[in-house]
Design goal:
By secondary structure, this protein is α/β, with parallel strands linked by helices. It folds into 2 domains: about 1-140, no CATH class; about 180-390, no CATH class. About 50% of the residues lie in helices and about 10% in strands. The protein has 16 helices and 7 strands. A hairpin with a 4-residue loop joins strand 1 (about 1-10) and strand 2. Helix 6 (about 140-150) packs across helix 7 (about 160-170) and helix 9 runs parallel beside helix 13 (about 290-305).
Amino acid sequence: MKIKDKIFDNRINSLNLLIETTIEEYYALSKDILDNNEFQRRRVKSSSSVYSLLKTDLRQGCVIPPIVLALSMEAEAGKDQNDDDLVNTILKHKEKLIILDGLQRTYTIRDLVNELESKDDPEKDTILKHKLRIEIYLGINKLGILYRMLTLNTGQTPMSSRHQIEIIYSDYIKAGIDGIKLIKETDDDTPSNESEYKFKDIIEGFTSYIERDYLTIDRTDILDNIKSLEKLAIENQGSDLFKDFLIAYDSFVKKINTLSNGWSFNDEVLDQKLSGQPFAKTALKIFNKSQVMTGFGSAIGKLIDNKAIEETSDILPLLDKINSENINEDLNTLIVRLDNIRNTAKKIGNDQRMYFHFFFRELFDKKSDGYLNLKDAINEAFTQYERKTR
């Protein structure tokens, strides 16, 4: 790997390197990228004929457009490092590389090398030494990666913002955040304790925060997504929005779980019989559902837009002020309200998301009637839900 040029990207505050490498070197590098990030988008089947032609071109030494990678990390790879140090930084952290543009080209290169190996092609050594160009963004933050993903892939098969967010934040699955455990769908495990969540559900909540939409629509419109990121750029100064979001939500769940004092649903104490199974039977299980997380995300985003709070972490000092005169009664009321919604909703999940969106806006907006009062927030949210749907 040889660095041919260096430019500092002032838009995303990152060092961009133009690197000359070989098919053989990139093959070795790409294995780590794909093996360590299961969320990278898979091969586009409909374009197989195009990539078959590309494979033939690569055999002949065709110069293809640079593949663009990103290394999200602290900017130890600064402007003043020499080329050898920069290459060493890349190789030292290669398992953290993400492909921003060129994933399908990467699969084609891997197909070609595997084909050369399996057939013991006499031209193998020559082909493996054919030159490639790659670009690598060093020291880029996660919002910058999202921005570059969107601007680089405008002509490609569109990728939803939710999928992009999955790719970018998947490193937190292994490392966790402040004792919070994120569980993949493929793991033989389900959230059952405090500070345990499905990664997919948290991603949906964070996507709702970014898009300010509790319905978590997988928008692929490039301009709409870029507008969302432009708005978030101000919030992102010196912070990790995903980390802030997760810590705030986890802190809220812990507070409610403590307030609940071991509450569990008991239909014998209700004045009315539910139409079916309750939404959940413990406080922890209520707030471990994706409908609640998406409502939280969109509500916090709207509160920031409306200047009710400045940033997500502003709700942390408010948590200790949340009050409930009778937590058992309040949680039972919540279950009844959710049962009412089930009886009238056309799409139950969407209506539940809408309800929790109103609930969190009531709870954390000091201008609302339900500010920091669990009972009032539960009831006022249902009133707003009814106004919206009837």
